[in-house]
């Protein structure tokens, strides 16, 4: 069948907005009764070693001070026309020690205020329950999700959160990029055992516990209000064969399975055959109870959400496996694609590919909840700017336009897409490198990698561009 390019057309009610994580924006790590999270001991992000406690060079301790400036920031989101804002609840704000008998009221009240502000501006909240923010005490006392006990601790947290906010929030996500635990067990799963000492059985047992906890959260949500929609969240990434060699295709399929397994379980309620084979052949014996099986089968997600930043290639030839610098998910660099300064290969067409792949595979509505370009921005004076300064980030506009055009193509293909929340609508501290200089936002935040800066906010050129995209429901994307 010949493909004919269709004009970018987004359906009525398409949700436009942006996404952040508490640990990258809030700050206030020691305020409002908050306990430490794993992020408070990761001053260099995923690329560096953890520390014994908070250190001054950890930018995440103060973030961009959303904890105090949330009203100002949400007003800027509203100025762009956001209809949805994805954010996370810091688990350690609600249960500072992870296994506390009672929740922290100050933490709950903070998110009440955030929701009040969103409601005032008519912005739909999309909340992530766990976004790389496991309470540090759970990592140290329980070895994170390796312990089955953490399911009950998560259930306690989830029940409190849904009792408090379930009547106000329609869209929820359980675990952020749950499949990233394979590559970053401490950040993604709160697993305290060093990665090189972690056995495959313990890793996949932790994954199983998270999957069960996700199903349990979905059950609690639907019991709270049947209108609540719960999604899983995975790191989405097309994996292409490096060549037409069938062995390269087989290698790409095998690598793809490692990621797809998570959403296969989330959407189908059971482990796929290829995963069971992998467990058998690698001596992985999981403790799976009958209650686990029943939960997984009965409480599948309502939609699938994902982040999209890059694609990779795979090959079956060990001699052709070259390290893809900066590609957090590994793989082999694609010789046909450019890359960002951090080595993430830029592939707008891959977003259409993965939207079609996910829709064909699961038949569930899809939500793109992260996509964006990390780049070094220069703040310049501008007489035309509302704030007196701006960033001329045409490179970001070009990147986002190209990706959103492919979303329109996927919608024309028949894919059901609920919405799009760009990653980092306001500059934030990078999860991978803990830098401020790796900026994603439509809003520039005056903060530097050394912690200096006023934290003042400035609208970038992309701020006004995105506002027009939203105001026209994507119609301006047809313009070059």
Automatic annotation (TrEMBL):
TM spans (from-to): none
Hydrolase found in the keyword field: yes
GO biological process, one term: carbohydrate catabolic process
GO molecular function list: beta-glucosidase activity
Active site: 370
GO CC annotations on file: cytosol
Swiss-Prot/TrEMBL keywords: Glycosidase, Hydrolase
Stated family: Belongs to the glycosyl hydrolase 1 family.
Name of the protein: Glycoside hydrolase family 1
Lineage, top ranks: Bacteria, Bacillati, Actinomycetota, Actinomycetes, Nakamurellales
């Amino acid at each position: 069948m010949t493909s004919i390019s269709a004009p970018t057309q987004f359906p009525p009610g398409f949700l436009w907005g942006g996404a952040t994580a508490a640990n990258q924006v809030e700050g206030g790590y020691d305020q409002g009764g908050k306990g430490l999270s794993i992020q408070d001991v990761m001053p260099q992000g995923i690329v560096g070693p953890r520390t014994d406690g908070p250190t001054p060079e950890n930018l995440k301790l103060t973030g961009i001070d959303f904890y105090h400036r949330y009203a100002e920031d949400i007003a800027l989101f509203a100025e762009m026309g956001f209809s949805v804002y994805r954010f996370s609840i810091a688990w350690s704000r609600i249960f500072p020690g992870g296994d506390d008998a009672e929740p922290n009221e100050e933490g709950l009240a903070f998110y009440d205020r955030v929701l009040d502000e969103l409601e005032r501006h008519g912005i739909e909240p999309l909340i992530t329950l766990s976004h790389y923010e496991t309470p540090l005490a759970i990592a140290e006392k329980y070895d994170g999700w390796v312990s089955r006990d953490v399911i009950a601790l998560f259930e306690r947290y989830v029940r409190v959160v849904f009792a408090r906010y379930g009547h106000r929030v329609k869209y929820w996500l359980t675990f952020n990029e749950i499949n990233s635990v394979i590559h970053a067990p401490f950040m993604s799963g709160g697993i305290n055992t060093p990665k090189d000492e972690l056995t495959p059985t313990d890793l996949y047992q932790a994954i199983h516990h998270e999957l069960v906890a996700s199903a349990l959260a979905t059950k609690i949500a639907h019991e709270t209000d049947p209108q609540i929609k719960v999604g899983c969240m995975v790191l989405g990434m097309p994996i292409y064969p490096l060549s037409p060699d069938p062995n390269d295709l087989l290698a790409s399929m095998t690598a793809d399975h490692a990621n797809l397994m998570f959403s296969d379980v989330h959407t189908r309620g059971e482990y796929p055959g290829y995963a069971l084979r992998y467990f058998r052949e690698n001596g992985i014996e999981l403790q799976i109870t009958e209650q686990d099986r029943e939960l997984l089968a009965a409480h599948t997600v309502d939609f699938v959400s994902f982040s999209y930043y890059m694609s990779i290639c795979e090959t079956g030839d060990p001699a052709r496996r070259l390290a893809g610098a900066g590609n957090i998910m590994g793989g082999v660099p694609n010789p046909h694609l450019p890359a960002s300064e951090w080595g993430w290969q830029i592939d707008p067409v891959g977003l259409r590919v993965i939207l079609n792949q996910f829709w064909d595979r699961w038949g569930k509505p899809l939500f793109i909840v992260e996509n964006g370009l990390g780049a070094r921005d220069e703040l310049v004076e501008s007489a035309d700017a509302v704030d007196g300064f701006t960033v001329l980030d045409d490179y970001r506009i070009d990147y986002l336009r190209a990706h959103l055009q492919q979303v329109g193509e996927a919608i024309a293909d028949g894919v059901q897409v609920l919405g799009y929340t760009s990653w980092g609508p306001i500059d934030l501290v990078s999860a991978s490198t803990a830098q401020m200089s790796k900026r994603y936002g439509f809003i520039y935040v005056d903060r530097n990698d050394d912690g200096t800066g006023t934290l003042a906010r400035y609208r970038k050129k992309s701020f006004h561009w995105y506002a027009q995209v939203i105001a026209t429901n994507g119609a301006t994307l047809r313009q070059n």
